[in-house]
């Protein structure tokens, strides 16, 4: 399988915040943002693998900034590293200022998707080659995030999480 670049999977979803999608403070409801991010990440994983993909884990979400009713929100997702059957997807969330049109970063998240066949069995995906400095940083940190996710899910023993342990040595 030919290696791909993050730009091959880059997925951009832009949408408004409507009244039915807000919390009592009239800001975007967290679950609605999670769903938008899951959709964008799922499309990115599918573009990279060209297979059926399922969400395996949500490794990190930071709701750094509230997003008010009426905002224009852009969710940008791209594969940051591919392993055997799993892919890490990095998601950046931007909000557009109504008057200036300037975008500011509101949130970020990291999801893991797995490519599967029709029976739900994991299948191999193409490798990912990062191109920019940011893509390389995300690529290099992805292995320890995978190990952390597997340790927390009880699927890896902490002693085997070599990359993760190296952080504390
Ligand atoms: C995701 C799923 C396919 C993994 O199945 P599994 O039996 O754990 O399969 P494996 O052990 O072979 O793991 C497959 C890959 O997923 C990765 N993986 C599994 N659980 C993970 C987790 N919690 N975090 C990160 N990666 C994980 C494994 O490391 C492996 O990656 P690799 O092949 O790139 O090395 C399976 O758990 C599943 O189908 N879950 C339901 C998915 C779903 O329905 N999602 C929608 C949410 S409702």
Automatic annotation (TrEMBL):
<dbReference type="GO" id="GO:0005737">
    <property type="term" value="C:cytoplasm"/>
</dbReference>
<comment type="similarity">
    <text>Belongs to the acyl coenzyme A hydrolase family.</text>
</comment>
<protein>
    <submittedName>
        <fullName>Acyl-CoA hydrolase</fullName>
    </submittedName>
</protein>
<dbReference type="Pfam" id="PF03061">
    <property type="entry name" value="4HBT"/>
</dbReference>
<dbReference type="InterPro" id="IPR006683">
    <property type="entry name" value="Thioestr_dom"/>
</dbReference>
<feature type="domain" description="HotDog ACOT-type">
    <location>
        <begin position="7"/>
        <end position="119"/>
    </location>
</feature>
<dbReference type="GO" id="GO:0052816">
    <property type="term" value="F:long-chain fatty acyl-CoA hydrolase activity"/>
</dbReference>
<dbReference type="InterPro" id="IPR040170">
    <property type="entry name" value="Cytosol_ACT"/>
</dbReference>
<dbReference type="InterPro" id="IPR029069">
    <property type="entry name" value="HotDog_dom_sf"/>
</dbReference>
<dbReference type="InterPro" id="IPR033120">
    <property type="entry name" value="HOTDOG_ACOT"/>
</dbReference>
<dbReference type="GO" id="GO:0006637">
    <property type="term" value="P:acyl-CoA metabolic process"/>
</dbReference>
<keyword id="KW-0378">Hydrolase</keyword>
């Amino acid at each position: 399988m030919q290696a791909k670049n993050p730009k091959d999977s880059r997925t951009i979803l832009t949408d408004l915040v409507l009244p039915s999608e807000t919390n009592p403070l009239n800001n975007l409801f967290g679950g609605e943002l999670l769903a938008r991010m899951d959709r964008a990440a799922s499309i990115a994983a599918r573009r990279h693998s060209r297979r059926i993909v399922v969400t395996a884990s949500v490794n990190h979400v930071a709701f750094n900034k509230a997003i008010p009713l009426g905002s224009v929100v852009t969710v940008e997702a791209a594969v940051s590293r591919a392993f055997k059957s799993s892919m890490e997807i990095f998601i950046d969330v931007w909000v557009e200022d109504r008057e200036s049109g300037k975008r500011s970063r509101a949130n970020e998240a990291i999801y893991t998707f797995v490519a599967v066949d029709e029976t739900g069995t994991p299948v191999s995906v193409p490798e990912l080659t990062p191109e920019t400095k940011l893509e390389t940083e995300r690529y290099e940190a992805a292995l320890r995030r995978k190990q952390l996710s597997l340790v927390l899910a009880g699927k890896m023993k902490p002693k085997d999480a070599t990359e993760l342990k190296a952080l504390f040595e």
